[in-house]
Write a structure and sequence with these properties.
single chain; about 170 residues; alpha/beta; Double Stranded RNA Binding Domain; six-stranded mixed sheet
């Protein structure tokens, strides 16, 4: 029975890691005709600091331009805004000091659980029709920050690429 338990723990940890990976979703106005849009302008970007504002704008610009949209200073057929935010989530990490000397009757040691705070980043990108200001696309990405700051740019770029993977959506127009 204990052997089965030891094999089950790693499987549960892998499942938890998959659940906590960057979660990216997108939605759009099914009546909007995206084939009529060729230009866009930025309304603005809000994030924790100007470095992240520039990174978010660059990542979204790359995706939209790869889809054939052209950025114009103002008056675009679409208007884009982005909002980045961070929150904190507490993770529990438990360590057992009884390994490897555990016994059949139990683990034979003391379990110590620590609360480890973790920053979680979220990004929302909205696209509006330039003339009507109606929302036509919203992409959201959660958990876009890494514990390793050097990986944050890549993690955000990957999340934005995933957000715009099927963009522009098929138009109903």
């Amino acid at each position: 029975m204990r052997t089965k338990f030891l094999f089950l723990v790693p499987a549960l940890l892998v499942a938890a890691a998959i659940l906590f990976a960057a979660d990216v979703t997108s939605d759009y106005d099914h009546h909007a005709d995206f084939s009529l849009i060729h230009t866009y302008s930025w309304i603005g970007v809000r994030a924790g600091n100007s470095l992240w504002q520039d990174r978010i704008m660059r990542a979204v610009d790359e995706q939209l331009q790869a889809k054939g949209w052209q950025k114009v200073p103002s008056g675009g057929e679409a208007a884009v805004s982005a909002f980045g935010r961070t929150t904190q989530r507490d993770n529990l990490e438990t360590f057992y000091d009884g390994f490897p000397g555990w016994r059949w009757g139990g683990f034979g040691g003391i379990a110590t659980t620590n609360v480890v705070p973790e920053r979680i980043g979220s990004l929302t990108v909205d696209i509006f029709m330039g003339n009507t200001k109606d929302l036509i696309f919203r992409g959201t990405a959660d958990d876009v920050l890494s514990k390793n700051p050097e990986k944050n740019d890549k993690k955000m770029d990957d999340a934005v690429a995933k957000m715009f993977k099927h963009f522009p959506p098929n138009s109903a127009g």
